[in-house]
Design a protein that fits this description.
- There is one protein chain.
- The protein has 30 helices and 25 strands.
- It has 875 residues and is of the alpha/beta class.
- The protein folds into five domains: 100 residues, no CATH class; 74 residues; 130 residues, P-loop containing nucleotide triphosphate hydrolases (Rossmann fold); 129 residues; 206 residues, Lambda Exonuclease, Chain A, CATH 3.90.320.
- The strands form six sheets. Strands 7, 8, 9, 14, 15, 16, 17, 18 and 19 form a nine-stranded mixed β-sheet that branches. Strands 20-21-22-23-24-25 form a six-stranded mixed β-sheet, sandwiched between helices.
- Helix 4 packs across helix 5, helix 12 runs antiparallel to helix 13 and helix 21 crosses helix 28.
- The longest helix has 23 residues.
């Protein structure tokens, strides 16, 4: 941390930073500094954004009685609503179209006020005139309602409320407004901390594609943290796509590729996503809005199905809701009126007990729709009551993140109720539209601790110092950013005030300033780009060194220095396997899977012994997890035998059956294989219970079936060689057909069987093997045991009487023969020593052999040889 900032925080002075995320980062840095000094308790530092500082000063002035009585300070949502109302007023009574521009106009007006821009109506374009007119209308409304918008305060108004010590600005230049306030209130006081000198020289990394760039980032993070676990790293993305939440999932997948943690179990102590996510991308809040939208008379059946299948909707059991949703979906009606739906539910209530309860809840919703206009605070309470009546999130065991999202939902309702200050009473549907607008532009960031790695798309000054910063995606099309002037503000005024988006010069200055800030915040700065992203070829930013200068090439396992133009023959082969090795090939399905994905991987791992090192982590081993789940399900179905017995068990009895067979599976595990920490096994038990009970609900919703066999070995011949396959389960359907079920405890695989491809290869192999044994099956399916999305995914000759997720293949026997032929070819190529480096798409993402096959370097060399852009690369 810079000395000036540390001194300011130590003296209790407020520090102003560009964003709440930068405030949190600086707060963690201050905490680390205090801990290193031996302190165990200290005053909370005042690290604020400019808006937060203004609001604090307003509150203090109000408490001291320095403000006129009855004057209200608008929240951000209240101010936004006033802008929308002003634009509707300017829309000449026509259909509301201007209101959509309220956020952009509000931001433009706030920035213009900060920089003292001259808005001259005499020389305004149509867009600039709109800002001038809307701003005038907003000011009239604010004056009429005796309110204050902090973003529009003048120098004199701020001077009247600011009575604290001068704040210190870091990570951002002072605006004209802030400079004037400093000159009036604190003359001679330095309020700005300039960017310090660079800590070192950056490293430049080039990769073949986005995947290898991301893998290099993960490898770099793991290496630095393995050397010192107390380090704090920042990963900055200049990519347009994927956005930060998705990129965070991908980075976590790369970080945990060799561990036993699942993607859904991302550890916030290791990786934190800066900025949060839009509220409507949040499952709990999106489900809550879906429930409330059923107040409308005309509803889509798919929308109702999403509500019924949602994890937080509490009317009925999961199985009852699933069966009702299936019947409504199969009715062939895409949209239903409320009255039509009520008639349908009355008919179905004899077969579906929860249909009556659902109907009563919808009657209550209909009553709300018919109520007269009311204040928004009244509607906030009514909406909350609607969700309580359907026991929303009441039957779910919420984890910490879900509990935080539920709190954020209630905060959204409070924010909605506070709009009474600026909104007249509304009817139900209008109030619901306003709540949806708030949710659409709202954000949620889960509370996290001081994470080892922080991922952000903020390309500005990081403010805090880091042990390492990696900036990815710095291509010539993205960095510097292209100009994008604000259409509502005169261009000449934007450039006079130095708005970064106003022109090429301003963008260039912004990029150079950011790069200087990065070098000033760490001694380990890495800047990278990918040569290709999908079909798009990139060059590095002009602000990075020319490709002919010193670069590092990133492989899939991380960045490694180039060692010249040496290449590895991608058509290498091993000696064929002779009959001396015996007719049986080991590894069974894994041999087929690896040979299909990448012949080189299959030969290197299965014949040369280049196996991956065992993962080290605090979670449970993936292999052990799969074993426990398989044994538990085997015991359950041995006891239950079929769906008839399953339907006779209520939820409590199913839970007891799970406990019996899970305990037996755990007791069968050798003590040395069990986790040393009992909390790990306790957590795994909770996870398994949730997954298995959900699976049993899905099984109960299927057509009648009986379990024919479980966990049995099947020896079969392909291309003259014997393979041993192990089939998890065979089901007999009521029409005499046989269904193969393969449990999948890890990430679900892509289903390509309905596209005539033999993928997943194990399902194709099971179908072909059973056909060869004269016991043909008519369907194969994966049953995902993942908590994120449990369910069936497969293919069958006829999908009737089969669970959802099964694709239909009418020419089933022909496909099985085709799969048999493809499997025979895979075995022939493996036996023949085929080791070509020609992987399927995405096969390299989790491969542990990139340093041997060097596919990434080969791809870069091939690209470079096409245009000669890297001649003279330093070794």
């Amino acid at each position: 941390m810079m000395e000036a900032v540390a001194a300011a925080l130590g003296s209790g002075r407020s520090v102003i930073v560009p964003s709440p995320q930068r405030a949190a980062a600086l707060g963690f840095a201050w905490a680390r500094l205090r801990l290193a000094a031996g302190d165990s308790v200290w005053n909370s530092p005042e690290i604020l954004t400019w808006d937060a500082w203004l609001r604090r000063e307003w509150q203090r002035a109000s408490e001291r009685g320095l403000l006129p009585a009855g004057l209200s300070c608008l929240s951000a949502s209240q101010e936004h609503t006033i802008w929308g109302q002003a634009l509707e007023e300017l829309d000449s009574g026509g259909p509301s179209g201007l209101r959509a521009f309220a956020p952009q106009l509000a931001r433009a007006a706030a920035r213009a006020n900060q920089d003292g821009l001259r808005l001259n109506a005499a020389f305004a374009t149509e867009e600039e005139a709109l800002l001038i007119s809307a701003l005038a209308a907003v000011r009239r409304r604010i004056a009429r309602d005796q309110c204050v918008a902090l973003s529009l305060l003048s120098v004199g108004e701020i001077e009247a409320i600011a009575h604290s010590a001068p704040p210190l600005f870091v990570g951002q230049p002072l605006t004209a407004l802030q400079k004037q306030i400093g000159e009036r209130l604190w003359p001679g006081v330095d309020m700005h901390v300039p960017t310090p000198e660079p800590m070192g020289s950056p490293t430049f990394v080039r990769s073949a594609n986005f995947e290898s760039e991301l893998a290099a980032v993960a490898d770099w993070c793991q290496r630095l943290l393995s050397e010192d676990g107390s380090r704090r790293l920042l990963v900055v993305s200049a990519l347009a796509k994927p956005d930060v939440p998705v990129l965070g999932d991908l980075l976590w997948r790369a970080l945990s590729a060799d561990s036993e943690q699942e993607l859904s179990d991302r550890d916030p102590a290791i990786l934190a996503i800066e900025g949060g996510e839009p509220l409507l991308q949040n499952g709990l809040i999106a489900d809550a809005m879906d429930c409330l939208l059923l107040v409308r008379d005309d509803m889509e059946v798919l929308h109702l199905g999403r509500v019924l299948l949602g994890p937080y909707f509490g009317i009925g059991t999961d199985g009852e809701r699933a069966r009702l949703e299936l019947e409504l979906r199969d009715s062939g009606v895409a949209r239903r009126s409320r009255r039509d739906l009520q008639r349908t539910l009355a008919i179905l209530s004899s077969r579906h007990p929860m249909a009556g309860s659902l109907s009563q809840w919808l009657v209550h919703m209909e009553g709300l729709a018919n109520e007269p206009a009311a204040p928004l605070s009244r509607w906030a309470g009514a909406f909350n009551d609607c969700l309580s009546r359907c026991r929303f999130a009441a039957n779910s065991a919420l984890d910490s993140r879900e509990a935080q999202r539920l709190v954020r939902w209630h905060e959204l309702l409070d924010e909605f109720a506070a709009l009474d200050l600026v909104c007249k009473p509304l009817r139900c549907e209008s109030a619901l539209d306003l709540l949806m607008a708030l949710a659409t532009r709202g954000m949620h960031s889960a509370a996290t601790g001081d994470a080892a790695i922080t991922l952000t798309d903020d390309l500005g000054d990081p403010v805090a110092e880091y042990d390492g910063i990696w900036v990815m995606g710095l291509t010539e099309s993205r960095w510097p950013k292209p100009p994008r002037p604000n259409p509502f503000v005169p261009l000449v005024e934007q450039r006079r005030c130095g708005w970064p988006e106003a022109g090429v010069t301003q963008r260039l200055q912004q990029a150079r300033s950011a790069q200087s800030a990065w070098t000033a915040r760490t001694s380990k700065l890495v800047q990278s780009y990918a040569v290709r992203e999908a079909d798009v070829r990139h060059r590095p930013s002009a602000l990075l060194p020319h490709p002919g200068e010193t670069w590092i090439v990133a492989t899939a396992a991380g960045p490694q220095h180039r060692t010249g133009q040496a290449r590895i023959d991608s058509d290498a082969t091993l000696p064929p396997l002779g009959q001396a090795h015996g007719p049986r090939l080991g590894s069974g399905v894994r041999l087929l899977k690896l040979q299909q994905e990448c012949a080189f991987h299959a030969q290197a791992e299965l014949r040369l012994g280049a196996v991956a090192l065992p993962g080290v982590g605090e979670g449970i081993n993936k292999r052990l997890r799969g074993t426990l789940l398989h044994r538990t399900l085997e015991g359950l179905w041995r006891e239950i035998a079929g769906q008839q017995r399953l339907l006779a068990l209520d939820e409590a009895e199913r839970a007891l059956a799970f406990e019996r067979h899970w305990s037996r599976a755990v007791n069968d595990i050798a003590p040395i294989e069990r986790p040393s920490d009992p909390r790990v096994l306790e957590r795994e038990t909770h996870r398994a219970r949730r997954v298995v009970l959900r699976i049993l609900q899905l099984e109960a919703a299927r057509a009648p079936f009986r379990v024919r066999a479980q966990e049995f070995d099947l020896d079969t011949a392909f291309a003259g060689r014997q393979l041993r396959l192990r089939i998890d389960r065979l089901d007999d359907l009521e029409d005499g057909r046989i269904l193969v079920i393969d449990y999948k405890s890890g990430n679900p695989e892509a289903m390509r069987l309905h596209e005539t491809a033999a993928r997943p290869i194990q399902l194709a192999a099971y179908a072909a093997a059973m056909l060869a044994q004269a016991t043909p099956v008519q369907g194969v399916t994966l049953l995902s045991l993942s908590p994120r999305k449990p369910g069936f995914k497969g293919a069958a000759a006829d999908k009737s009487l089969l669970p959802p997720g099964i694709r239909e293949l009418p020419d089933w026997e022909a496909e099985a023969l085709r799969w048999n032929e493809e499997i025979g070819q895979l075995v022939t190529r493996f036996v023949g020593g085929d080791a070509q480096v020609d992987p399927l798409k995405d096969a390299c993402l989790y491969c542990h052999l990139p340093s041997l096959c060097r596919i990434t370097e080969l791809a870069i060399d091939a690209d470079e040889s096409q245009d000669g852009e890297v001649e003279g690369v330093d070794e």
